[in-house]
Amino acid sequence: MPISRLLHSRRALNFVGAGLCFALLGYALYAQYGLHLEPCPLCILQRIGIVLLGIVFLLAAAHHPRARGAYVYAALLVLAAGATIGVAARHLYIQSQPPGSVPACGAPLNTLLQMFPLTEVIRKVLHGGGECAEISWRFLGLSMPAWVLLAAAALGVLGVWTNAVLVSRPRRIGLAQTPSAR
Fold first, then answer.
1. Per-residue pLDDT for the chain (182 aa), expressed as one digit of tens each?
2. Burial of 99 by CB count in 10 Å (0-12 exposed, 13-18 middle, 19+ buried)?
């Protein structure tokens, strides 16, 4: 498929969005198991956000709705991207704090989930701990949460473009097409 046609195909762009999300998740798993970088609770929440984005992109591609349905998918993608951006921004804020100002490491996420209700676990995780303040990976000077923030923002823009902007644009008829060829 030529790139110009790809840019106007909502289904193809939704599949591309899903593929990018699952590629990001694949790299996160490689970083965890291949590079031995243990994810902190905020990293896990960011992974969940990226997975949600991928699932919504995949559903939008499979369903390929018209008009209102496409806007619903655009809104869901904005919500998932916004939540992921919020968690990544909080993680970056915790990482920017001076050493010693962040509380010591808390209990592992599995233990928190067994001991507290989900809302309390989310509150505790977003408060952050020592494991979230540690920066053990950088690429081009940016830590992993910064890259997740940028990726979630780009995926949110892709989701809006694909499901809100393209659906509202009338398709252009090529010069070679005649009214009878439609």
1. 555 555 567 888 899 899 999 999 999 999 889 988 888 878 888 988 999 999 999 998 888 887 788 888 889 999 999 999 998 998 888 888 777 666 555 556 666 666 667 777 666 666 665 566 677 777 888 888 899 999 999 999 998 888 877 766 655 444 444 444 44
2. exposed
Sequence-distant (≥ 6) Cβ neighbours of residue 154 within 8 angstroms: none
Helix (H) or strand (E) holding 138: strand 138-139
- Give me the residue spans of the domains in the chain: 7-169
Closest Cα to residue 25, out of 122, 181, 144?
A: 144
Query: 7-169, which class in CATH?
Result: mainly alpha
Is residue 12 within 8 A of residue 6, CB to CB? The reply is: yes
What is the four-CA torsion angle of 135, 138, 142, 144, rounded to 10 degrees? -70
- Are the C-beta atoms of residues 57 and 17 closer than 8 Å to each other? yes
Report the residue count for the chain. 182
